[in-house]
Each structure stands twice: as C-alpha cells, then as structure tokens.
Amino acid sequence: MRPNYNNNNTQPQVKKQCYFCSNKMTTVDYKDTQTLRRFMTPHAKIMSHNRTGTCPKHQRMVTLALKRARHMALLPFVSA
Hints:
mainly alpha
C-alpha cells in the first residue's frame, strides 16, 4: 500500500495527534476559553476533527464545551 502524500507529492502526510490525549486531559472545560479557541475558525465556527487532529471522543467533548461556552456568553456565536 502506498503512503498518503500531500499535494506536491514530496513528503508523506503525518497524522496529527489529539491535543487532549497527548496532554492526558480527561475532560474539556467550557470555562477554558483559550483552549477552546484553538478549535474555532476566525469566524467562530467549530473546526472538524480532520483539521484539528482530535480523536472522535474528544471532538464530541469540544463541540459540547464550545456550545456551552457560547450559551454562557464566554465565546461568540458569530464573529464579523
């Protein structure tokens, strides 16, 4: 099987490590806005796990924490 290569076909793609698994974090706190901003686009959208490298378990936790932080007005719903 051939390894996956990036667009210019010079180097193989490296799979990103989950931020929470590598730092041994078991929960995602909605009050930790600095960490949650890593998983948002500049327009305040939630980034997919393909772009962030989070595992499915932690991606679900990130999504829930972001929605809770938005509801508590710690993070914006939309950024102009």
